[in-house]
Design a protein that fits this description.
Its cofactor is K(+); Mg(2+). The chain is α/β, with parallel strands linked by helices. It is built from 21 helices and 19 strands. The strands form 2 sheets. A 12-stranded mixed sheet has the order 8-1-10-19-18-17-16-15-14-11-12-13, sandwiched between helices. It has a 7-stranded parallel sheet with strand order 4-3-2-5-6-7-9, with helices on both faces. Strand 18 and strand 19 form a beta hairpin. The protein is elongated and about 85 Å long. It binds ligand NPW, adenosine-5'-diphosphate (ADP) and potassium ion.
């Protein structure tokens, strides 16, 4: 799991490293940061030697990092053209210190400094240099960026983007690409053509990942991201933050996907009750059930309204289907027969293709109000429960809600724009009020734990998954994973579900292409993804297959 920090948390980390008991000199931290960029980009650009490089240094500490980078790449054989946007006296002490060193080593061969005043000639020369150089280092703005880009940064960014798009210029961003908000991923100039952000090929970020590097549109600007600890004391790197957020990694999921016990039976692997569907959306119910089957469920029961049952029975022999009641959709009276049998289920999933009839709302509430097993709520179950915060928050059972943006907007009462402005804050506030584990689906999907309020960001998945039915598969997957033999905690099950779902989507994109793979194919790819992860885990000797050859 990788910590995802805000700019304020980074400032605090920085401050503690320098001024607390650790006493690291500010210039040393900046030295480490600049050196890290020179080192890490070296491989990416196939060596600095013989390259012409433009290093653009802003007037904050991001610019100070740029001075250090220029010194290191010059020593590695590059010719560094350093553009300085601030006045010498404006810089922090540590930046001034590194600038003095650079001034002392300035020559025509390896290091040339320009104090950029924005004259016509300077713009012309900058354009020519950018056109003829191979690499540009963006040390203009990092975590201190706010608002929209101002001049001259805005035009320099425009120039770099234009030349990089036309030719063979590699753009390396320092900490955060200029014009990306490191907390939200929002970018400068999103509502206009000008003042747009810088598009980097690679970003080297310091101390911890920034949220803006994993949230769109910032993620698009960052390119390949590498994290460097820059010599921060280890306790600071791992210390929990006040409102923690993490990027999920495969190793986190591996903990949930423990191998099956060799003597286990179908009862060990969870009995999944999928209670959903209505007459014109039988497919959604089947897809949710298939997601559960492909995630390793022991038994999957599908309960649909009576008139939907003929479209489901026999479609997939491993799913046990029964029609409930008489109608095309569930009504409150149908709850009795489902409640009779659900005491034996490990988990219930409701919502995909359920329809939004008022009578169905009473049905959903009746199921939720009785019983103890965890419940996964998606799609129409969520639409029906919008406005039912008091009812849901007072339930005495574990609930996972898996809305996409529009469903989350209906539930939370926030507009889509308000959610997108700060999805972390919106998601955390919702979980606090509704007391549920939240899977806010999208690119990327966020999972928020009901127990801790921690946010987990999923790195897997791709735009090929933007297709009807993809979320139905996820519902069944999360239900099945929560009922695994190891009975993972509900938030871990949700995280594993979204990670595997995205990884299966990525496998489909590799095998089939970005267009046209189906939700059922994503579900079918899940066992292969689990197998690969299991193979990469050490399998205890006694669980190795007993095949002698
Ligand atoms: N562990 C760490 O974290 C370490 C961090 N380090 C480095 O420090 C960086 C943070 O430095 P920082 O705080 O000085 O901020 P930075 O990004 O340079 O920008 C501030 C300047 O930008 C300006 N400015 C702002 N918005 C603007 C706009 N829209 N358009 C134009 N200008 C704008 C703003 O001007 P103002 O708006 O205040 O007038 C101010 O002058 C961090 O990203 C990392 O690289 C390492 O050296 C060591 C370890
Ligand atoms: N661009 C994308 N990148 C990554 N994942 C995506 C992308 N678009 C969609 N997905 C994933 O596909 C699923 C779509 O779910 P949803 O919108 O509920 O579909 P449906 O309601 O049709 O079943 C979510 O898990 C979402 O995270
Ligand atoms: K930058």
């Amino acid at each position: 799991m990788q910590k995802l920090n805000t700019a304020a948390q980074m400032r605090q980390m920085d401050y503690t490293a320098m001024h607390g008991k650790y006493g690291i000199q500010p210039a040393v931290l900046m030295e480490n940061a600049g050196h890290a960029v020179a080192e890490r980009a070296d491989e990416y650009i196939h060596g600095w030697a013989g390259k012409d490089v433009v290093v653009v240094c802003g007037k904050g500490n991001n610019g100070g990092d740029g001075f250090v980078i220029a010194r290191h790449i010059a020593a590695a054989g590059a010719r560094a053209y350093v553009y300085i946007l601030g006045q010498a006296e404006e810089y922090s002490d540590e930046s001034q210190q590194h600038l003095s060193t650079l001034q002392a080593m300035e020559d025509d061969e390896s290091c040339l400094l320009t104090y950029f005043g924005g004259t016509e000639r300077e713009w012309r020369v900058l354009r020519q240099r950018l056109q003829s150089c191979q690499v540009v280092v963006d040390a203009m703005l990092g975590t201190g960026f706010h608002g929209n880009l101002r001049e001259p940064v805005s035009s320099i960014v425009g120039l770099i983007n234009e030349i990089a798009a036309a030719g063979a210029l590699t753009v390396i961003a320092v900490d955060v690409p200029t014009g990306v908000n490191s907390d939200t991923g929002a970018v400068s100039g999103s509502d206009e053509e000008e003042n747009g952000p810088l598009f980097a090929d690679m970003t080297v970020t310091f101390g911890a990942l920034k949220r803006g590097l994993v949230l769109y549109p910032g993620r698009t600007c960052a390119g390949h991201v590498e994290l460097d600890a820059i010599g921060m004391p280890a306790p600071l790197l791992v210390q929990p933050e006040e409102k923690p957020a993490y990027l999920l990694q495969e190793s986190d999921i591996a903990e949930v996907l423990v191998p099956r016990s060799p003597d286990s039976h179908k009862g060990s692997h969870g009995t999944i009750g999928i209670v959903t569907g209505c007459s014109d959306m039988a497919g959604a119910a089947l897809m949710a059930a298939h997601g559960a089957v492909r995630s390793g469920a022991g038994k999957v029961f599908l309960r649909v309204p009576a008139q939907t049952a003929p479209y489901c029975i026999g479609r997939q022999p491993e799913i046990m289907v029964r029609g409930v009641g008489q109608g095309e959709y569930f009504t409150e009276a149908d709850a009795v027969s489902v409640l009779d049998e659900c005491a034996a289920w490990s988990v219930i999933a409701m919502g995909p293709g359920m329809g939004r009839h008022e009578e169905t709302k009473a049905f959903v509430k009746a199921i939720l109000a009785h019983g103890e097993c965890p419940v996964v709520l998606d799609a129409d179950a969520l639409n029906l429960l919008a406005g039912e915060k008091d009812f849901v928050s007072s339930l005495d059972r574990q609930v996972i809600m898996t809305p996409h943006l529009a469903e989350f907007s209906r539930l939370s009462g926030l507009s889509v724009a308000e959610i997108q402005e700060d999805p972390f804050a919106a998601a955390v506030q919702f979980v606090k009020e509704w007391r549920v584990t939240l899977v806010l689906k999208g690119a990327p999907t966020l999972v928020v734990s009901a127990k801790t309020g921690n946010v987990y960001v999923n790195p897997t998945g791709n735009a090929g998954m933007a297709c009807g039915g993809m979320g139905d598969i996820l519902t069944g997957m999360i239900a099945a994973i929560s009922a695994r033999e190891s009975r993972p905690d509900i938030c871990s099950a949700a995280c594993a579900g979204v990670y595997l779902h995205g990884a299966a989507g990525d496998a489909c994109r590799r095998q089939i292409g970005s267009y046209g793979f189906t939700p059922m194919e994503v579900a079918d790819a899940v066992p292969g993804v689990i197998r690969r992860m299991e193979e990469e885990m050490a399998v205890p000797l006694l669980q190795a297959p007993m095949i002698l050859d």
